[in-house]
Amino acid sequence: MKMFSKTTKLLVASVVLAGLSTASLAADKVYKWKLATTWGPTLHPFIDAPTKMAEMVEKMSNGRLLIRVDAANKHKAPFGVLDMVQGGQYEMGHSASYYWKGKDINLLPFTTMPFGMTAPEQYAWFYYGGGMELMEKAYAPHKMLSFPGGNTGAQMGGWFRKEIKTLDDLKGLKMRIPGFAGEIMAKLGLTVTNIAPGELYTSLERGTIDALEWVGPGMDINMGFHKIAPYYYTGWHEPATELQFLVNKRAYDKLPKDLQAILVTAMKLSSYDMYIQNYDMSATAWEKMKKDYPNIKVETFPKPVMDAMKKANQELRKEMVVGHPLLKEVLDSQEAYQKKVREWTKMSDYLYLKDNL
């Protein structure tokens, strides 16, 4: 009996040791991922968000999760990021959800919508107003997860070679403005085109286009548009442009829980960091722009033009949701949250600025 007891104890001890050894091996396992971006290696701050995220993940995981960031010049498919992540060629991607409208219209609103929420309002909707749950629902058929990936804040309405005084001044203009905003402008009589970034300056200089929108001073300054087009219009079309981290769900589910938590935390932190980095870049760039090019005129589109844009926006939204119940659910959620949160934005930010400018 004593011998049996001793054998049993030895057996239990060996099982415990084996379990500890297995746990140790799991803790020591290194996961190597790849991330594809839509951006080139010098497009700051867009490329900085995934780069900083990968650095944080490596440090927080003590090297157990390593993410290699491939810029667009490496994988050669800037608008193929969704397909590459979905197919498992890359475990992650960094892009913008509205690029996938042609593949799945339900994904469009998770970047921003014309006349929509500001960046703080939209972040509140994502994390506390049901936005993350709706985004998970929209990406589930693609077997992917999507997380906020960095915000530009309100983008400027564009650089124009001539002043826009009436709605008639827009008609017939050739403008580079992509996406849903481009559909709105086309409805107002503009000829809308989408030109590769590297060709924009030359196109504007040669008169191939009359106007274009890019982002804001922080990213516009290196493009040189302010040297050609003196009228800089304030925004309406992308009030809170949120980039995205795409994650292959199968790869995500294979990660230990602690690495999942580290990844999610790093994505969230790097996203907010990009927002404040871009804010600083724009403030710094605008200070230089107005000093070096005092002829730049910051304008707001006249009220009749804005009213026409809003009308076209509402008409296109109504057409767009027909036959797409999930898209309607997302847009309704955004609209309801914006109505609620805008009261506080007005009280806290608008009235403060109104009284102190």
What is this entry, summarized?
By secondary structure, the protein is of the alpha/beta class. It has helices at residues 2-28, 48-60, 72-75, 81-86, 119-128, 131-139, 179-187, 200-206, 217-220, 249-254, 257-292, 303-321, 325-355, and strands at 31-37, 65-70, 92-95, 144-151, 158-160, 174-176, 191-193, 211-212, 231-233, 242-248, 297-299.
Topology, please?
Blueprint (H helix, E strand, L loop, with lengths): L1 H27 L2 E7 L10 H13 L4 E6 L1 H4 L5 H6 L5 E4 L23 H10 L2 H9 L4 E8 L6 E3 L13 E3 L2 H9 L3 E3 L6 H7 L4 E2 L4 H4 L10 E3 L8 E7 H6 L2 H36 L4 E3 L3 H19 L3 H31 L2
Parallel strand pairs: 1-2, 1-3, 6-7, 6-8, 9-11
Antiparallel strand pairs: 3-10, 4-10, 5-8, 5-9
Helix pairs in contact: 2-11, 6-13, 7-12
Describe this structure in words.
The chain has a domain at 31-150 and 240-281: 3-Layer(aba) Sandwich (D-Maltodextrin-Binding Protein, domain 2). It contains 13 helices and 11 strands. Helices cover 51% and strands 14% of the residues. The radius of gyration is 24 Å and the shape is globular.
SS field, number of helical segments = 13
Distance between the termini: 90 Å
Mean pLDDT value = 93
The CATH fourth-level homologous superfamily of the domain at 31-150 and 240-281: Bacterial extracellular solute-binding protein, family 7
Note the beta-strand portion: 5-15%
Structure characteristics:
disordered N terminus; D-Maltodextrin-Binding Protein, domain 2; 13 helices; 6-stranded mixed sheet; 357 residues; 5-stranded mixed sheet; alpha/beta; globular
